[in-house]
Amino acid sequence: MSFRTFILGLSASFGVAWLAIVVVPFIKMRNLAPIELNEATDGATGIFFPKRTGRVADGAQVYAENGCYLCHTQVVRPTYAGNDLYRPDWGGLKADPDRGDTRRETNAYDFFGEKFAQIGVSRMGPDLSNLGRRVESIYAKDGSATQWLYSYLYNPRHIPENYQSTCPSFSFLFHEQPVKGERNADALPYGGTDDTEIVPGPEVKALVSYLLSLKKDQAVPTVLNFAPDKGKAAKK
Ligand code: HEC
Q: Which of 111, 120, 134, 195 has the fewest Cβ atoms surrounding its Cβ within 10 A?
C-alpha cells in the first residue's frame, strides 16, 4: 500500500463518519422545517409551534457554564432504546390533573430557542427534560416553584431526606445582604442571620427561569410522536 492510498483511506474512514454523524445531522437540525398539523390524526389544522416561556437563551448559557449537562441529561429516549418513559415523571406526568398521561419522547423541536441542545454527557443525576413540570406539580405543589429551585440550588442537602445528595451546591450564585425593611421576596427561607438574608444573583434567576421552562411534554403532531399511545397523546 502506498503512502498516498494510506492517507486517502484514513481520510475516508474518518471523513465519512464525520459527515454522517456531525455534518448531516447539524445541517438537518439547524433548520427545522415547520410541521403542518393533520386534521385527521392531530385533530387540528395549522402549523405546529413548540411552546416555551422563560429566559431560555440566557438561562441555557448559565446551565452550560456551570456544567449541569455533565451530570444531567435532557433526553427522554424512545422505548426501544431505554425505559425513560417508565421512570417516575421523566417523560412527562403519568397522571396530569388536567391532561391525563402526558408522557412522550424528546424530539428536536423541544430545544427551540436554545443555541445548543443540552442533551447531556452522563446521567449522574435525574433527567431534567420535564423538571419544570415536576417541580410545579410535585415538589412545590403547595408553594413557589421558583423558591423551591432557589433553595435547592443554594444547597441541595437542605432538605433532610436529601442529605446524601451529590448535586453540587451553587451557593456562589447567591449573595448575603443586610435586611432593609421588608425581607426580599426572593430571599431563601433558610440561611442568613437575624439581620441578613440570602438572595439569588442575576445568573441563578436566569437559570431557574430556564429550569422552569423545561416541560417537554407538549402534545406534538403524530408524525413526531413515537410514544406507545400515539393517537391519544397527539390530540391532547
Ligand atoms: C456532579 C454531578 C452534578 C452536577 C454537576 C449537577 N447535578 Fe444536579 N443532581 C445530581 C444528582 C446526583 C442529583 C440527584 C440527587 C438529588 O436529588 O439531590 C441531582 C439532582 C438535581 C435536581 C433535582 C431533580 C429532581 O427531579 O429531583 C435538580 C433540580 C438539579 N440537580 C439541578 C442541577 C443544576 C441546575 C445543575 C447545574 C447548575 C446541576 N444540577 C448540576 C448531580 C449533579
A: 195
pTM: 0.89
Mean pLDDT of the chain: 89
Residue 18, domain extent = 1-31
* 1 and 98 assigned to the same domain: no
The DSSP-derived string for 19-53 is: IIIIIHHHHHHHTPPP-B--HHHHS--SB------
Which protein residue's CA is at the shortest distance from atom 25 of ligand 1?
A: 126
Verify whether ligand 1 is closer than 6 Å to residue 168 (CB atom).
yes
Domain total of the chain: 2
Q: Is residue 236 part of a domain?
A: no
Instruction: Kindly report, residue by residue over 145-189, the tens digit of the pLDDT.
Output: 999 999 999 999 999 999 999 999 999 999 999 998 888 899 999
Residue 157 counted as domain residue: yes
Ligand 1 proximity of 158 Cβ (cutoff 6 Å): no
Q: Residue 43 falls within a domain, yes or no?
A: no
Calculated CA dihedral for residues 35, 36, 42, 46, nearest 10 degrees: 130
pLDDT of residue 204: 97
Q: Does ligand 1 lie within 6 Å of residue 140's CB atom?
A: no
Q: What is the atom index within ligand 1 of the atom nearest the CA of 166?
A: 12
The cell for 196 is: 441578613
User: Does the C-beta of 90 come closer than 6 Å to ligand 1?
Assistant: no
Ligand 1, pocket-test mutation among 65, 66, 72, most atoms within 8 A of CB = 72
Q: Are residues 182 and 66 in the same domain?
A: yes
